[in-house]
Design brief:
The structure holds 2 protein chains of 2 kinds. Chain A contains 9 helices and 18 strands. By secondary structure, chain A is an alpha+beta fold. Chain A folds into 3 domains: 2-113 and 164-179, Proliferating Cell Nuclear Antigen, CATH 3.70.10; 125-159, no CATH class; 191-351, DNA Polymerase III, subunit A, domain 2 (DNA Polymerase III, Chain A, domain 2), CATH 3.10.150.10. Chain B folds into 3 domains: 2-98, no CATH class; 113-283 and 314-319, Box (Proliferating Cell Nuclear Antigen), CATH 3.70.10.10; 343-419, no CATH class. Helices cover 24% and strands 28% of the residues of chain B. Chain B is globular. The chains are: A alpha+beta, B alpha+beta. At the A-B interface, strand 6, helix 3, strand 9, helix 7 and helix 9 of A face helix 2, strand 10 and helix 8 of B. Chain A: InterPro entries: DNA_clamp_sf, HUS1, HUS1/Mec3. Chain A: Belongs to the HUS1 family.
Chain lengths: 368, 419
C-alpha cells in the first residue's frame, strides 16, 4: 500500500478541511485512482460527502493498493490535518505520504517554506526588502551586491528554506469496514435553489439562533429550530418561531437552476420540482433545521463555491457546493447544474427535523 | 521613607510594560531589584502588572515617576505617578513585600553548547506547532547541517497509543529542520537532545522579538539549566530554564545516556508538571534616565509543586521557586492559541455559532489585559476551574444583549439596506 502526492491548491484543501472539522473531529478519506473523497458522518447532525477530482488538490499523485482502483481508506483527525495545512499555505513545496513511524501509520506532510519576514528586522542587519520569501529575489540581490564595500553585507545571514514535517496520525481502514457506509439516497428534490451568499445567510441564521437561545427559558438544553423554506420561484425564507417571538427573513430573485434532463430518473414534466413550480410561488418546500448544526453546515461557505440547496419537503435538505478551481483555470466545472456530473462537489445532507439524517440504502452517487 | 526613586520616560514605560507582560506568563509576582554600583538597595515583591496599567490607556504618557516607600512603622508601597500629555496625572499605590533576593544558578563555564538565531524567525517557526504539545526537543545533526526543533508530548507516549481510537487522538507531531547556515553561530555537540517547555519558550520568544533581533542560548546537558538571552538598547534579558533530564523523557529513544545523578531518582509521575522547565527571568534596564530596575521572577511565597519538593535534586534547588503550575494540557493549549495561532477575520466569520465558546475566547485574550484590578483572576488556570461550574456557565450565556453578527459594511454590500 503506497500513497504519495504533492499538494496543490493548499488553500482550497485547507478550507475544505476547516469546513469538515466544524462538523466532526474525524473524517473518512477514500483515495483511489481518480477521486479523493472526504466523508464525515457525525452521530448527530449533518453528513458531508466531499468528492474531489485528484488534480484539484493533488499533483504528481501515486497510489497503489491491493484493492480495485488502488483504493485506500483512511481515518484521519481533521484538526491536525488543518494545522498541518496551515503550515503548508504559502510554502514553496509540500507533499503528503502514507508512512509508518514507530509501527504506527502516519500521514506525513513535508513542507518547504520560508518564514514570513525574517528580513526587515530591527537593527538593520539585513537590507530592506530582502529575504521576503522569494528565493530568486535573494539571488538577484546577492549578484547585484557582490561588490558592495561593506564587509557586513557579505556576512549577512541568508534566509534559508526550512523543512517542516507534520505527522498526522491515521488509521488504515479495511475495505470491509467501510463497505456498508453508503451515501444516503434521498428522493428527487421538490425545490432546488441557489442560496444567497453563505456568509450573509450564516450571519442572519446565527443571529436567529442566538435570539432563540436568549428568549427561551430553558435555552441550555433545547436547541432552537430554524425553519427553512424555498419555492421554485426564486424565494428562500428563514424563520424562527418561539413562544414570544416570530421572525422571518425572505430572499427573492434567487435562481432555480435548470435540471439536466438526461440525468433525471423521471421525465422533467413529472419531476417533483416541476409540480412545485406549477403550483406557484405560494407552494413552499419546508425543512426544519437545528440552529447550531445549521451554523456548522454553513461553514462550507469558506469554499466560496456556488451552493445549490435541494429541498425534499418535510424530509431532507441537501446542499451541493461546487468548488471553483482557483488556479486550475477550469471554471467551467462549477457551472454545471444540479444533476450534472459532480466532480468537485461537497454534498451536505441534513435530515428534516431530526438530529441525524435518514440513511437509506442505495448506491453511492458521487457522479449523480 | 522613600528608599528608591526613579522616573521612566514614555519609552521606558513601554519597555517595562513589555517586560512585565512577559514575566506575567511565568508568575503573578515579580521581584524588583535595584542596584547602584552593584550594591543592593532593595528587593521587594509586588503585583507587577497593575504597576503599569496606565500604559493601556490611550493618552500619551509624558513620564512615570516611581517612588518606593518603606521603613519602620510605614506601609510598604510602590507609588507610580503617571503624567499624561493631556495634563492628567494618575497615581497608583501598590503594596509590596520585602524579600531576600533569589537568583537562578547558572554556570556559564559548563554551558559550552550555544547557538544564536533571529528571534523573529524562531517565533514564526513556533507557529507551526499544533496544540496539545508540551515539550520542545532541540537537537543538531552535523551530517545534514541542520538544527531540528521537534515538539512532542509525553502524555501520548505513556498512553502507548495502541488502541484504535486513541491513535487518532495523538497530537500533530512536528519537526522543523533549520539549516545551520541560518544561525549566527552554532556550536553544539552533535546529536545532543535538549528538551524544554514549549510554553516557556514561546513566552520568551514573544518578548524577544519585540526587543531584539537575536536570541542566544547556551546550555550543557539534559537536566542542567539553559540560558536564553537577548539584549538591545540598554535592556538585557536573561532567562534560565531548567531542561528536562534524559531519564525524564526520552532516554529510551536516545541512547547517549549521560551521568546525571538527579535523573536517577525514579519518579512515578512523569507528567508535564513534574518537569515543567522551571524558569527564572532576569532582565535589567539601564537606560539614559539612570534607572536600574531588575525584575526577577521570584515568587518565593508560592508553594513549590509537590513533585519538585520531594524529588531529590539538590543542585536544582534554585528552581523550586515556581508557583503551582496551571493545569498543564488545557492551559497550554489555550495559551498557545492566544499567543500564536492567529486566525484571519475571514476564518472567524465561518466559525459555527457557539454561545458557550464566546466567553472562553474572551478569556484567552486576557494575558495583557492590565486594566483589571485583580489580575490573578484573569489567569487561564483560574478561568478554567471557574468555568467548570455549570451554574456560572449558564449565567454567562444568559447575559442580556446580543452582539451584532454582521458589520454594517457587510450588510450594505449585500444591498439589504439602502446606504
Amino acid at each position: 500500500m503506497r500513497f504519495r502526492t504533492d499538494l496543490r491548491n493548499v488553500r482550497t484543501f485547507s478550507k475544505l478541511t476547516a469546513a469538515l472539522s466544524s462538523l466532526e473531529k474525524i473524517a473518512w478519506v477514500r483515495l483511489d485512482d481518480d477521486t479523493v473523497r472526504f466523508t464525515v458522518i457525525p452521530d448527530t447532525g449533518s453528513q458531508v460527502w466531499a468528492s474531489l477530482s485528484v488534480p484539484l488538490i493533488f499533483d504528481n499523485y501515486h497510489i497503489q493498493s491491493a484493492e480495485p482502483n488502488n483504493t485506500i481508506n483512511l481515518e484521519l483527525p481533521l484538526q491536525p490535518l488543518l494545522r498541518a495545512l496551515k503550515s503548508a499555505i504559502g510554502s514553496s513545496y509540500a507533499n503528503l505520504r502514507l508512512t509508518k513511524k514507530d509501527g504506527l501509520p502516519m500521514l506525513s506532510m513535508t513542507i518547504h517554506t520560508m518564514t514570513r519576514d525574517s528580513g526587515g528586522e530591527a537593527r538593520g542587519r539585513k537590507a530592506p526588502g530582502f529575504g521576503a520569501n522569494s528565493g530568486e529575489a535573494e539571488e538577484d540581490h546577492f549578484t547585484s551586491q557582490s561588490f558592495a564595500p561593506e564587509p557586513l553585507e557579505l556576512t549577512m545571514k541568508r534566509e534559508r528554506e526550512k523543512i517542516i514535517t507534520q505527522d498526522i496520525p491515521v488509521r488504515v481502514l479495511h475495505p470491509d469496514t467501510v463497505e456498508t457506509i453508503m451515501q444516503p439516497k434521498v428522493r428527487e428534490p421538490d425545490v432546488h435553489i441557489q442560496l444567497p451568499p453563505l456568509l450573509q445567510l450564516k450571519a442572519i441564521s446565527d443571529r436567529f439562533t442566538k435570539l432563540a437561545l436568549t428568549t427561551s427559558t430553558n435555552s441550555r438544553y433545547s436547541t432552537p429550530k430554524l425553519v427553512l423554506q424555498a419555492n421554485m420561484h426564486g424565494s428562500l425564507r428563514l424563520s424562527l418561531h418561539t413562544d414570544t417571538l416570530s421572525i422571518t427573513s425572505t430572499w427573492t430573485g434567487l435562481e432555480n437552476p435548470e435540471l439536466d434532463e438526461s440525468q433525471l430518473p423521471v421525465p422533467i414534466e413529472e419531476h417533483p420540482s416541476t409540480i412545485f413550480k406549477r403550483a406557484g410561488p405560494d407552494r413552499w418546500a419546508t425543512v426544519r433545521v437545528d440552529g447550531r448544526d445549521w451554523s456548522r453546515v454553513l461553514s462550507v461557505g469558506r469554499l466560496e463555491g456556488r451552493v445549490i440547496a435541494c429541498f425534499c419537503d418535510e424530509h431532507a435538505l441537501i446542499l451541493y457546493v461546487y468548488v471553483p478551481h482557483l488556479d486550475g483555470g477550469d471554471q467551467g466545472r462549477e457551472e454545471r447544474g444540479v444533476g450534472g456530473e459532480r466532480e468537485d462537489v461537497v454534498t451536505v445532507i441534513k435530515g428534516h427535523d431530526l438530529d441525524g439524517v435518514m440513511v437509506t440504502d442505495g448506491a453511492t452517487r458521487t457522479t449523480g | 521613607m522613600v528608599i528608591l526613586n526613579f522616573t521612566l520616560s514614555e519609552e521606558g514605560v513601554a519597555v517595562l510594560h513589555d517586560a512585565l507582560a512577559c514575566l506575567f506568563k511565568f508568575s503573578d509576582d515579580v521581584c524588583l531589584e535595584a542596584r547602584r554600583d552593584k550594591s543592593l538597595l532593595t528587593i521587594f515583591r509586588a503585583r507587577h502588572n497593575s504597576g503599569d496599567q496606565s500604559r493601556e490607556k490611550n493618552s500619551a504618557i509624558e513620564s512615570c515617576d516611581v517612588a518606593i516607600d518603606d521603613g519602620l512603622g510605614r506601609k510598604s508601597r510602590l507609588v507610580a505617578r503617571v503624567s499624561f500629555r493631556n495634563g492628567i496625572t494618575a497615581s497608583h499605590s501598590l503594596p509590596f513585600e520585602v524579600k531576600p533576593p533569589m537568583h537562578a544558578k547558572f554556570n556559564p563555564d559548563e554551558a559550552c553548547n550555544r547557538w544564536a538565531i533571529s528571534s523573529r524567525t524562531l517565533r514564526q517557526l513556533m507557529d507551526h506547532f499544533g496544540p496539545g504539545i508540551e515539550l520542545l526537543d532541540i537537537n543538531t545533526d552535523n551530517d545534514t547541517r541542520v538544527v531540528n526543533f521537534t515538539c512532542f508530548t509525553e502524555k501520548v507516549q505513556k498512553r502507548g497509543a495502541v488502541n484504535n481510537e486513541e491513535v487518532l487522538k495523538k497530537p500533530l507531531h512536528t519537526n522543523i529542520a533549520v539549516e545551520m547556515d541560518e544561525f549566527d553561530h552554532v556550536n553544539v555537540e552533535d546529536k545532543l537532545h535538549i528538551i524544554i517547555s514549549v510554553k516557556d519558550f514561546r513566552a520568551i520568544l514573544q518578548h524577544a522579538q519585540l526587543i531584539s533581533g537575536e536570541l542566544t542560548t547556551c546550555y550543557s546537558n539534559p537536566g542542567r539549566p539553559m540560558k536564553l538571552s537577548y539584549s538591545a538598547d540598554g535592556i538585557v534579558c536573561e532567562f534560565i530554564l531548567m531542561t528536562v533530564g534524559e531519564k525524564d523523557a526520552l532516554s529510551q529513544k536516545h541512547k547517549n545516556l549521560r551521568a546525571n545523578t538527579a535523573s536517577k531518582i525514579p519518579r512515578p509521575e512523569l507528567d508535564a508538571s513534574s518537569h515543567r522547565a522551571s524558569s527564572v527571568a532576569n532582565s535589567s534596564h539601564q537606560n539614559s534616565h539612570e534607572v536600574a530596575s531588575a525584575p526577577v521572577a521570584t515568587p518565593t511565597s508560592m508553594p513549590a509543586p509537590p513533585q519538585l519538593r520531594t524529588s531529590a535534586r539538590p543542585r536544582n534547588s534554585a528552581f523550586e521557586i515556581r508557583p503551582q503550575p496551571i493545569p498543564p494540557h488545557s492551559a497550554a493549549t489555550a495559551q498557545s492559541e492566544s499567543l500564536f495561532v492567529s486566525q484571519g477575520d475571514e476564518d472567524e466569520q465561518w466559525e459555527p455559532v457557539n454561545p458557550e465558546g464566546e466567553d472562553e475566547e474572551n478569556a484567552r485574550l486576557e494575558w495583557n489585559a492590565t486594566n483589571d484590578p485583580n489580575p490573578s483572576s484573569l489567569r487561564i488556570g483560574s478561568y478554567l476551574s471557574r468555568s467548570a461550574d455549570p451554574q456560572e456557565m449558564a449565567s454567562d450565556i444568559l447575559e442580556p444583549g446580543l452582539e451584532p453578527t454582521q458589520r454594517l459594511s457587510q450588510v450594505r454590500r449585500f444591498g439589504l439596506f439602502s446606504p
